[in-house]
Amino acid sequence: MNHLKQIADKLPEYGLDAMLITSESGERYALGFHGEGLLLVTRSGAHYTTDGRYIEAAREQITGAQVSLVSAGSGHLAQARAFLEAEGLHNVGFESGAMTVDAHRRYDQELPCILTPAQQLLDELRSAKDEEELAIMRRAQEITDEAFKAILNFIRPGMTEREIAARLVYEMMSRGGEKVSFDPIVAAGPNGSRPHAVPGDLMVDTGMFITMDFGCKVEGYCSDMTRTVALGQPTQEMEEVYAAVLSAQKAGINAARAGVPGSEVDEAGRRVLREAGYGEYFTHSFGHSLGLDIHETPNASPGENRILPAGAVISAEPGVYLPGRFGVRIEDVLILKEGGCEDMTRSPKDLIVL
Length: 354
Description:
This protein has 354 residues and is an alpha+beta fold.
């Protein structure tokens, strides 16, 4: 699977002769391969350079691009320069959202072309996943669901957040995950009021909520989910907060569809929490796009006026965070379609009491 043709077809729209791709996710999207190389996509072809660590795999796996080996006397930039000169390419887009200032300075000095910021070209293409991408993401999400089911049989009072996080990684990797989408979040009791808490040595105990946010990668594509479970019987307030968050999530999911701005989906969920009296404790966006990166665009956020396209994959993750006391977040991943969405996440959402 690669997307070289889609990128090439977009170049005239942006007035570009070629697109320079150097990021891991950009390379993976374009080629279906990552080898820490340099890719130039033109209107009629593509040229990719990598080193001896990846050259054999690159030649086996990459189609639609000329693949060349770099050496001490013929590095990435030297080969890119020769290619640009031979093809007469002048206006070259680059991943302005991923390239460092130092890297840009080096490319600008070494390459005989005008470098034009063109992050939007890739972002627009990557915002709508095709069926091959969606099939991979469904598999990644399936692994994540299986890991959640397994962790419910593992958690016991006296375990630390760190132990639970480590077990989640094991469960995902043992089921086919390549690596984690991000460092897992496990936040128990009062730590649950911190949306991005780092798992530590706090021991889980009866009467606590435990929030677990985790995901894995399959063929470079991310999964993502969050569940909050109770260890022992929760208080009435805890149950009320959980019910409010679940209602907010369902409202946002009901509003999620292609053709609407992300702010509309966010507001559908946010309104529920505001009316329940928890509006000030919902401190982040309803959701974000994901794919090769765990955070992509567009988002389901208050200020997102861009239209969500068909094929976009977004999270649905409202939360309530009561400082120093506890927090609740419930997250699914949705595929947006005309008139609605598909929820890829299969794990139960009603409150689980361990």
